[in-house]
Give the backbone structure.
Amino acid sequence: MDEHAGGPGAVMGPEPAMGQLIVGRDAELVRLFRAVDSTSADPTSADSASADPVLVLVGDVGTGKSALLESAVLRAEARGARVLRADGSESESSLAFSALHQVLRPVRAEVDGLPEGQRTAIHDAFGAGPATAAPDLMLTGVAVLNLLSALAEQGPVLVVLDDAQWCDRASLDALSFATRRLRGERVTMLIGARTGDHLPGFDRHVRTLTLGPLDSDAANRLLDLQPESPTGRTRRRILDQAGGNPLALTELTRAAAAHGASAEPPSAGPLPLTDHLERIFAARLNDLPASTTRALLLLAAMDTVDSAIAVPAGLPRAEDDAWLPAERAGLIRRTGRDVRFRHPLVRSATYHAASLDARCEAHLAVAEMLRDEPDRRAWHLAAASPRPDAAVSAELERTADRARRRGGYAAAAKALQRAAELAPRREDSARLLVEAAATAVFTGDLAWVEELTAAARARTDDASLLASAAVQAGRLAALTVRHTAVFSRLADAAEQLALSRPAAALDLLACAAVVRFYSGEDSQRHRIQAVLRRLPENTSPAWLRTWVRAVSDPFDGRAELLSLLPKLAAEAERRPDRLITLAIMAWLLDETPRAVRAVDEAFDRWERRGPLPEGLGGAVAWAFVEQGRWAQAREVSARTTAVGSTAGLDHAVACAAVVDATVLAFQGDAGGGPGRGAPPPPPPKTRVMRGG
């Protein structure tokens, strides 16, 4: 749902942070203001009810996203709205819940007023809970939803994410979960992101406003408004060079004026526009004092939170004279105790204009300042390591472990991926990549999992690791609609390893059985049985063989499979994940009460360890449906949808929708269900094997 808008007029709206006039963006401002005004409207009014709770503003660097968002913020504040905002940061994107922390910092008192479980989930997400606490991602999303809803009862709320392409995945997941459920309430979210960047949770069914280049009339009008408007050949060169990019137009004009009226703007040559603008910004660094240059490089190497922590430890304070030359050069802004770059390009130019050695020294200095912040310190040590370093790799492994315990699977997988890059030994690198893939499975991002497994295959010939890599990719691929291709890949790999690595082959066959469960193809069932017969009977673990048999064909040897359930239940006593597989097998074998008991036990135990893994929740949801526990069935479906809808796992989303529709039908909710009429009977297992 993409809308291109770009009226030719000039809107002299609220002045943006960079001091630019907003020219040629009439339609975009109207649209943003309409979204802001709907937040302030009576929630029962037609305007409020029809408003979109989320609007994503996308465009290339320099198209004016931040200026437009700032105008919307000023308008919202003038109308009495509470504004909560976060600015994404590239290196901070690896820290779970860092963006959400920015958003909720101004409402810490209101967070403390949430119900205990939700308050604890937020505190755990921010690392303020017990060291071993692992937040329930679903409960964190519910907490954010209830907090925003409660704030909206007091008055309109505007949530703004700028540079959202650099916001961490855990924060985006929590905020997208909340905003999907806020329609009709006085909460609006405006998001600014770069064109082409993937925003998990906000890239499907979310209205998007695209900022293209300014047209010729608007570009010329913007040049006319500059303090020293260019003319003649210089003007033509600037217009040609800028390509309608507002930032390029203003900065090229400034550069031309700095070199004299007759000077031509520098030629871009073969370089992309962004690189060229970075060179323009970097040119302002040449005449700065050494103390200013060092302070700027330290600031460029930091994140927003880093700088707040690091000021007492070595970064000059905002009032320090070291910043004055940079402020005069138009590189930074000083607001109270805060020092910020005027634009991300200034930060990028400052950072990349420095030598590699200087950048490494800056990151080492920041790491020393952050000795009490081990996760941030680890990433700065990694940035200061141009070559493999076993000690830094180990630090990142520990960071990944902490992130995983907090439920930040995306942050953990990123840390493991970087740890693999820094591991001196190829075997360690491959192991870390497979571990990263296993962790990334819980993000639902199949493309990332496949990227990690491909990198692992490129680093090792170890059959066991290669098999593990294939299993990780297979676990998510099974939840797409590519059943035939995925099954063939998994079954082929299982056949190849049947004799040399039977345990790994059984793992692969377990994934293939899930694909067969969804497809219902008899040819796939026969192939699974053929490969299973080739595996030694004592292949460990034995429960996995039972799983393959039960999932691929629960009707063949049902009595024998039922007799194995008590033993499997005893083995699963200390394994919540094993309890889930036990529950699925019991449900498939028509032992629904046993299935529900196993699910309850797993949920109870997993609460103390972290979020329940997504993936095979379809059978769990159906077990709840058959027991009449409809609210829990819908909760499981919501978890599946939250992950699957952001990752393209269309089959998983479809299965969850079927469960949800069935529950709504049982409840007689014709408006919320897929159709009208009397509720249908529960679907038989043979139907579910094809659809859920």
About this structure: The chain has a mean pLDDT of 80. The longest strand covers residues 187-194.
